[in-house]
Amino acid sequence: MDGPSLPLNVRRLLTTNLVVNRLHMFVNGIAILALFHYRVTTLVSVFKTRETPLLPYLIVLVSEIVLTFLWVLHQAYKWRPVKLEVYPERLPGDEKLPPVDVFVCTADPSKEPSLGVMNTVLSAMALDYPPDKLAVYLQDDGGSYVTLNAVREAWKFARFWVPFRRKYELKFPCPEAYFSAEESAHERFIGSSEFAAEKKIIEKRYAEFQEALGKNSVNASDSVSGDHPPVIEVMTDENGDSNLKEMPLLVYVAREKRPGHPHHFKGGALNVLLRVSAVISNAPYFMVLDCDMYCNDPSSVRQAMCFYLDPKVSPQIAWVQFPQKFRNLSKHDIYGGSLHHLYRIRQGLDGLRGPQIYGCNFVMKRKQSMGLTKFKRVGYRYFSVVEDCITSLTLHCKGWISVFLNPARPCFLGASPTNLNDMLVQQTRWSFGLMQIGLSRFNPLIYGPLRMSILYSMCYAYIILESLYTVPFYGLAIIPPICLLYGIPLYPKVSDPYFIAFAFVFLSPRLKHVQEVVSFGDSLWTLLYELRVWMMKSGACYFFALMNAFLHKLGLHEANFSLTSKVVDDEQTRRYEQGIYDFQVSPLLLTPLCSLYILNLATLILGIPRIFHTGDQFFAQAFLSFFGVIVNYHLLEGMFLRKDNGRIAPSVTLLSVAISAIILCCGSLLLIY
């Protein structure tokens, strides 16, 4: 009699991280309680004596309350960190694997170049999965003949690439990645004359494929239409004599679009793909990829099946989420493109009910998508199977779980924004959509607690309400420096025992950040880069996301959707690789950041005499400004020291100086209250 079979997946509790996390929560929580005890007692004194203006004190207090609220929500991620491991080599034979549909969405070949999109399509077709159980669908929201012709060319090349990848067991299913890396064929084939001969043929055909796409992409922007009929084309061999049993299905889809008719962007595109694929292949599972997120590990679908074919956990799992990782990151990750700050805390989600849907790189059961579109839209997005946290929230509230699988080798690789403008625009767009959910009936703190654990409701609430960071950011970037200039103390003296509580609350998260970065294997420079990104997001992205979400709630703002360009700018890429910030950014996003920087720099310089005159009474306020000025030195450099094209525009600098001067002049109003 056979013994028990080996497990397909293993869940390991990260005990050290768990102990460190909970110890930090406990100690930092005590310090926060001491901080608020000081605030309450001081507030009572302010009411009685009226010696200190009330308004600035209340603004700082509100800022600290919001910060504490978000900190408490954030701790839910760290409560029970676990790591998942899978063993795809233990899966049953190919004949027992279920069919899988792969969905890829694109919209504009002028912003999402055809070569990159087709490499994603080809990588999905070349996955290590039975070809007769794999179907790839490309949804073209622009209805572009450029994209349709590119798919036809990709099909021609795929008939050679897919068998070649399978025959020689290449580690890279993406042709562009394969030809730009060291040889990845199985070692038993390297040195073979047959392999060398076939590789030359494939290289030649790939060059011809690239040339064809280049010619086809002329005037790509003119090919995009917002008014076109539906098109569905199943790729087949034009002569009908090719052995297609070794080829996955490839289908081009362009849904109908008409002016004035809501199409709901990517969510609507995915809903169309679900309906079309249900008629053609109707696989019980589907995988969603962004058009620039190619398959890097051919075993990615098999890794997901390690959960779906496990009878112990499969009945509960709705989707398997892989991380978004990027191929174009510099060692100077100045724009936070690696998203490591997210993945460090996502380990805690598998200790609860699993991660939210990230918008791509996930494998989902088709039956879990059924009926989702009956929900009314939140803001400008329909309740779809992708991109919205609300989809994940609803499925989790119904009792389903998900898993976050982060293997050592990235299963998918995409292109991260390599300039500041794209990063800020992208983050603003995401934050706006999330904040719309926060202002709806699907707010996790309202919708979640009766349907799932309070810890998991807190996880959802944190990611959706993250834009609230803009409140304490502006409150603490404006009020303490102005009060320093006007001689209004807001914090205890250094000699006061309560100063220890404030110092601990400030330093403790910094030290915890160090621990997380080091344990994750990142360099210490990551500390600075991530702190800068958080400040830029809080001062620009979160501010406009919060404002626009409230305006939209009132019917005063029409939401829109803009693509992040995938076209590479050589000059911007050069600066990014050198760790130099590119400030060719919309003045609307950059001016608030520069204004706050100048304000803190000016008050710090002007307040130095007061610091020496009064001793330690204003040390905390001066240190806050000093900390902000030092961390954001790149803004000073961009405004006053750099002369290259990537510097901050002089017009933005002058406008920021004017705004900061106005804020300083209006600071006297704080004395009235």
Automatic annotation (TrEMBL):
MF GO annotations: cellulose synthase (UDP-forming) activity
GO cellular component assignments: endomembrane system; membrane
One BP annotation, GO: cell wall organization
Annotated keywords: Cell wall biogenesis/degradation, Glycosyltransferase, Membrane, Transferase, Transmembrane, Transmembrane helix
Binding positions (Mn(2+)): K266, D290
Cell wall biogenesis/degradation in keyword set: yes
Protein localization: Endomembrane system
Membrane topology: Multi-pass membrane protein
Protein name as catalogued: Cellulose synthase-like protein G2
Organism per entry: Sesamum angustifolium
